[in-house]
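Teaching note: in complex prediction, the entire set of molecules is handled at once rather than each chain in isolation. The prompt given to students was simply: 'Predict the structure of this complex.' The entities are:
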Amino acid sequence: AQSVTQPDARVTVSEGASLQLRCKYSYSGTPYLFWYVQYQRQGLQLLLKYYSGDPVVQGVNGFEAEFSKSDSSFHLRKASVHWSDSAVYFCAASMCGGYKVVFGSGTRLLVSP
Amino acid sequence: AQTIHQWPVAEIKAVGSPLSLGCTIKGKSSPNLYWYWQATGGTLQQLFYSITVGQVESVVQLNLSASRPKDDQFILSTEKLLLSHSGFYLCAWRGTGRNSGNTLYFGEGSRLIVV
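The expected output is the structure of the full assembly:
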């Protein structure tokens, strides 16, 4: 079955430190992959997406993600986090032409001063 | 530019009462529309999707129904609310084609508390 796994429910990092949020997918082919961010009591905002090409994709606000076919992963990274990055981050996947978009369970990021 | 608006922003409703949540998208013709439910602190569960007026596909019903009465409108409803319906409801439209990469674009959400 198609699934997206985010193994870390909560991550705490200090402001200015680097960040990696993990995402693993289980699909028969290579799906579209997404990272979204959800700030308190708001809808989801797209950070970045990947389908093909360069495995490292750049997103908004200094975020980037790296696709690995061998590892079935799509980890999100940021070189230096800011307190305003505190939010819940969701990884998602869908197959080209499919109507189902599957989300991971989310990772709550807390940036401490 | 496309905009998506959800209403109401929040509701407190009694168990057994009816519910109607709405979603309108502007600036996009014949959009693919989605309803998601999010329990407090939880992941997103896809409920319904619609690719055209009058056509709605159910993914997980949760004793809810959906309708698409107009090209730009998607309605989520139930005649009798359960406590388990509490949560955050998100409407989204989906881009198509390689450029948009099948991306979902979300509204601001509707928060529902059932008491």
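Point out the following to students. Chain A touches chain B at residues 32, 34, 36, 41-46, 49, 51, 90, 92, 94, 96, 99-106 (CB under 8 Å). Residues 3-112 of chain A form a domain with the Immunoglobulin-like fold (CATH 2.60.40.10).
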